[in-house]
Amino acid sequence: MNINRLKNTIEDIILSEKTTAEKQQAICNFLESEISYYDWVGFYFKNGNKKELKLAEFTGEPTEHTIIPFGKGICGQVAISNESFIVQNVADQDNYISCGWKVKSEIVIPVLVKGKNIGQIDIDSHTINPFTNNDKELLEFICSKVASLY
Ligand code: SME
């Protein structure tokens, strides 16, 4: 992974004339096409005043999990912990919501606006144990840039 090149393209998307939703969609599309082991990329955001996440932009197969209560699954746990969560093998997780048998691993990074958790980026992979510190660094960079849009 050429992390600097990826970061540069993300910055170009953030600074472009697109709407926030279009930027988030472009980020999903870019990541899914650039990184071979990213098979589903999406953004979830807090659903108004409810203690739940609502699916926003995504790339990959449609999921029935468009609403996720806080605390449920990997995403719901990150909504509460405010911390990045890497799951190298979903079979090891009890509190996990499956989006299909093909998914083997997942990484979720919160979008923090002045310390407030407003949402997250969620990546599903069909590969076991694919994520390194580079993924965490890149995705935390992306979430800080997305946070700047809010
Ligand atoms: N696997 C997630 C649910 C969302 S899908 O990955 C798109 C979870 O456990 O929270």
List the helices and strands and how they pair.
Elements: H1 3-15, H2 20-34, E1 40-46, E2 52-59, E3 67-69, H3 73-81, E4 85-87, E5 105-113, E6 116-125, H4 133-147
Antiparallel strand pairs: 1-2, 1-6, 2-3, 4-5, 5-6
Helix pairs in contact: 1-2, 1-4
The structure holds methionine sulfoxide.
Continuous helix count: 4
Order of helices and strands: HHEEEHEEEH
- Shape by Cα distribution: globular
Helix content: 25-40%
Bound molecules: methionine sulfoxide
Written account of the structure:
The chain has 150 residues and is α+β, with helices and mostly antiparallel strands. The protein is built from 4 helices and 6 strands; from the N terminus they run H-H-E-E-E-H-E-E-E-H. It has helices spanning 3-15, 20-34, 73-81, 133-147, and strands at residues 40-46, 52-59, 67-69, 85-87, 105-113, 116-125. A 6-stranded antiparallel beta sheet has the order 3-2-1-6-5-4, with helices on both faces. A hairpin with a 2-residue loop joins strand 5 and strand 6 (116-125). Helix 1 packs antiparallel against helix 2 and helix 1 (3-15) runs parallel beside helix 4. It is globular and about 40 Å long. It starts with a helix and ends with a helix. The model has no long low-confidence stretch (mean pLDDT 97). The structure holds methionine sulfoxide (SME).
